[in-house]
Design goal:
Blueprint lengths: L5 E5 L4 H12 L3 E6 L10 E4 L5 H15 L4 E4 L14 H28 L3 E5 L12 H21 L5 E7 L27 H13 L4 E4 L3 H10 L1 H11 L4
Helix pairs in contact: 1-5, 2-3, 3-4
The structure holds NADP nicotinamide-adenine-dinucleotide phosphate.
């Protein structure tokens, strides 16, 4: 019997994680979903329940994966949460939750499973965000954690390349997944006119292709690169747009 490659995907119960689970399965992977709620029937081959903000639960899940599979071909650090609040409004608890889930958990899980990924000469895929590059008012904490996650990817790549491990950093722009409705903070995101949202299925295909081609970074959709360059070179303009959109005094 042909040996299937193993992909461990965090946050595979909904949104981008669910779409990536389906895509990796379509490409013959044995998918292990790591999240709190079980994914829909048939979306993943296995489900390990863990709250990744709980270090004990994270370690126990990693141990189970190591014992059961030994080698992990792909680890996708996808679980994450956003927040809509100014720095002044965001509570300490909300900030801590965001740092724990979006940054500390992927770092801890990667450290726990690095030996398994190296055993397969596999890949770590970190789902950061276009927000790692583009500052957005009332999303400062999210900007900060996703930028930290991107730097984690870039520096980890340097450290593990010699062991045959590849690191792909992914920066999605807005994709409608219900992510906004689950975000922390007291504000509602402003409605942005025009077609700014993209498809989770197309996103998942792009991620798989970028993984297959051993790319270092994927920004999806590609036109976000214009926004990234704009924000980098025209910070004053970027500030004025943000103040207007968020109706800041
Ligand atoms: N959608 C976008 O527009 C967008 C844009 C840029 C970046 N991203 C990033 O893409 C990733 C996925 O976002 P999404 O849009 O798919 O969001 P989503 O639909 O809200 O999915 C988030 C996933 O994270 C899991 N999760 C949340 N808290 C967890 C915890 N404490 N422990 C374990 N798992 C937890 C959830 O599963 P359980 O509830 O079952 O635990 C869920 O499967 C996130 O990192 C997000 O920052 C999204």
């Amino acid at each position: 019997m042909e040996h299937k490659k193993t992909a461990v995907i965090t946050g595979a119960s909904s949104g981008l994680g669910a779409a990536m689970a389906a895509e990796f399965r379509r490409n013959g992977f044995h998918v292990v979903a790591l999240c709190r709620k079980a994914p829909a029937q048939g979306l993943a081959d296995e489900f390990i329940a863990a709250d990744l903000t709980d270090p004990e639960e994270l370690r126990a899940a990693a141990k189970e994966i190591e014992t059961r599979f030994g080698a992990v071909d792909v680890l996708v650090n996808n679980a994450g949460i956003g927040s809509y609040a100014t720095w002044e409004e965001l509570s300490d608890a909300e900030l801590r939750r965001e740092v724990e889930l979006d940054f500390l958990a992927p770092v801890a899980l990667t450290k726990e499973l690095l030996g398994c990924v190296a055993a397969a000469r596999g890949a770590v895929i970190n789902i950061s965000s276009a927000a790692a590059y583009i500052p957005v008012a009332c999303m400062g904490a999210y900007n900060a954690v996703k930028a930290a996650l991107r730097m984690f990817s870039v520096t980890l790549q340097m450290e593990v390349a010699g062991r045959g491990v590849h690191v792909l950093n992914v920066c999605p722009g807005r994709v409608d997944t219900g992510f906004s409705s689950r975000a922390l903070g007291g504000r509602k995101p402003p409605e942005t006119p025009g077609r700014t949202s993209s498809s989770a299925e197309v996103f998942a295909r792009k991620v798989f292709n970028a993984y297959r081609k051993r790319k270092r970074e994927l920004v999806y959709p590609g036109w976000y690169w214009f926004a990234i360059v704009f924000a980098r070179w025209f910070p004053g303009c970027c500030e004025r747009i943000n103040r207007r959109v968020w109706q800041l005094k």
